[in-house]
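Thread: "does anyone have the structure for this chain?"

Original post by V.I.:
We have the sequence but no experimental structure in hand. Need at least a predicted one for the grant figures.
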Amino acid sequence: MNSEKSTISVRFRSDFAEILEVRAWYEGSRLGTLTNRLVRSELQKVSRVGEKYIISKGSAEYDELVATGGLDESYYLLPEIDEIISFMPTNEGRRGTKLTKNKQVSLYLTEDEVSQLNRVVYAQDVFGTYDSEKILSYRYAIHGLLLNTELLKKQIHKERWLVPSRPSTKTQTSEAFAFWKG
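Reply from O.Q.:
Generated one for you, C-alpha cells below.
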C-alpha cells in the first residue's frame, strides 16, 4: 500500500551534516536516506509516548517534573532550545547571499508522521514556529529529533564536532570504520 507522502525540507549546518554524511557513507547510503530513517525512528518513539508526554528540557513543565521526581521513562525529552539552536545554520551576516555550506535534505513523511512532527512543534513552543493551527517551521523540531538519536548523542558528546573527513585511502577507510565502531 503506497500512501501519499509530504515533503519537508530542512537545512543543516555543514559540520552537523558531515556527521550524518560520514555515517551514511559507512552504511552505504546517502544523507537524505539516513536522515529520513533517523527522523522516522524518533517519530515512532514520539507516537508511543503520546502528546502529553513530549516535553523540552529547560521548560517549566520539565523543571516541575524534575523537582517533584515525576520524570520517568514514559516521557520523550527534547533537547533544550538553546542546544538545538547551537546546531542550526545561521546567516552570519551574509544577507542576500546563497550559503552553499549548508546542506538541504528533503524528508518524505506520511500523514501520520507529519501529525507526530506537529506535536513536537507544539511541545517545543518556539516563538514563530506556528501560528494558531498552522505550522510555519519544522526546523527546530527536526533538529531536536535528530539530536535525540543515539547516533548523534554518542557522536556529539564523544568529541564535540570532531569528525574524520571522507576517507580517500585504505588506511583512512580503516580509521573511519574503527571510528564508527568504537
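V.I.: this helps a lot. The CA atoms of residues 58 and 85 lie 14 Å apart.
O.Q.: and The beta strands are 5-12, 54-56, 76-78, 103-110, 130-131, 134-135.
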